[in-house]
Amino acid sequence: MVLGTYKEVVTARSTDKEIQKIAQDGGIVSALFCYALEEKLIDGAVVAGPGKDFWKPEPMVAQTADEILAAAGTKYTFSPNVLMLKKAVRQYGLEKVGTVAIPCQTMGIRKMQSYPFGVRFLADKIALVTGIFCMENFPFASLQTFISEKMGVSPELVEKMDIGKGKFWVHTADDVLSIPLKETHGYEQSGCKVCLDYVAELADVSTGSVGSPDGWSTVFTRTDAGETVFKAAVEAGVIETKPVDTGKFGLEILTKLATQKKEKAMKEIDRRKSMGLPVPYKASSEKEDPLANV
Amino acid sequence: MLARIKQFLGIGAKPKEVPKEEVEKVAEEKAKPRIGYVHLSGCTGDIMSLSENYDILAELLTNMVDIVYGQTLADVWEMPEMDLVLVEGSVCLQDEHSVKELKEAREKAGLVVAFGSCAATGCFTRYSRGGQQARPDHESFVPIADLVKVDCAIPGCPPSPEIIAKTVVAVINGDMDYLQPMIDLAGYTEACGCDLQYKVVNQALCIGCGTCAMACQTRALTMTDGRPELTSARCVKCGICYVQCPRSWWPADRIKQDLGL
Ligand SMILES: Cc1cc2nc3c(=O)[nH]c(=O)nc-3n(C[C@H](O)[C@H](O)[C@H](O)COP(=O)(O)OP(=O)(O)OC[C@H]3O[C@@H](n4cnc5c(N)ncnc54)[C@H](O)[C@@H]3O)c2cc1C
Ligand code: SF4
Ligand code: SF4
Ligand code: SF4
Question: Which CATH superfamily is domain B2-185 in?
Answer without folding.
Answer: NADH:ubiquinone oxidoreductase-like, 20kDa subunit (3.40.50.700)
